[in-house]
Amino acid sequence: MKRTDFPFLGFGAGLRRPHYSFVLEHPRSQRQPSQELQQEQKPESKVDWFEVISENFMVDGGRAIEVLEGVRERYPIVLHGVSMSLGSSDPLNRDYLRKLRDLARRFEPAWISDHLCWTGVGGRNLHDLLPLPYTTEALAHVAERIRQVQDFLGRAILIENVSSYMAFADSSMPEWEFLAEIAEQADCGILLDINNIFVSAFNHRFDANEYLDAIPVERVVQYHLAGHSDHGTHLLDTHDHPVCEGVWALYERAVRRFGKVSALIEWDDNIPEFSVLAETADRARAIYEKIVRETASQSPHDNFAEKSGKPALPADHRA
Length: 319
Prior knowledge:
Layout: E1 11-14, H1 20-25, E2 50-53, H2 63-74, E3 77-80, H3 94-107, E4 112-115, E5 118-121, E6 124-130, H4 136-153, E7 158-160, H5 175-186, E8 189-193, H6 194-204, H7 208-214, E9 220-225, E10 229-230, E11 235-236, H8 245-258, E12 262-265, H9 274-298
Helix pairs in contact: 4-5, 5-7, 7-8, 8-9
């Protein structure tokens, strides 16, 4: 897998039911996110792409499919799953994978992602993203399952780091080492959730900067940015608040390290008007563009943009 195999999509938002009508009735302008930055360019309050929850659209028809067809006509999309259960000791769910493959063939997303976690065992789905013990045994198990999934789907996938609130006594390595090594052994990409790093760093008292610095640049294809709730002694990854300043600062550090990476705003509870998501995506864009300008002025021969993947996708992209 090469990061250059994946397009740069720009700055997007998670597609959620309250925004279906607005998104379909207010398509974006024709500006492409890959256009070279112009100093005098005015900012736009438009998102460039959408991430959709795969399981919400694994149906034969109805309103969900109609919506996805309409969105896909207007925007690039990616499929983001919550049920692959890559860390489970249960066999991979081939029926689930077939439905995911069929959905991908129909809507041709730029990529497919899921979480580095387990969601069930013994045939029972616990409907939560549960952390793994960071051991060599778990690493080999998950890497092999990712390889099987990629063979089945016929494409490389991205895996996302999850937030956590407990640690396993048997863990023998830090989370960032576990994530980096799995991506290497499975030859997959990384969806780096900046908020999850921030939340877990607080809960487990590790240095979030050390986490970022340990992730291989060439594996990072996408960011998630989201809000969380603060309970004093711990943080919960609730996706029901604005992105906090600490997460923005960590995002800026990530942009400086990883370069041109597609970013996505997640908001799953207390969902605001779509304009709030668009403004948040614009802030991510503004941070990225600021760093591009700084990099260009400091090192004119260091092409920051070349760290990215393919040019941005037009709405009619076929991956």
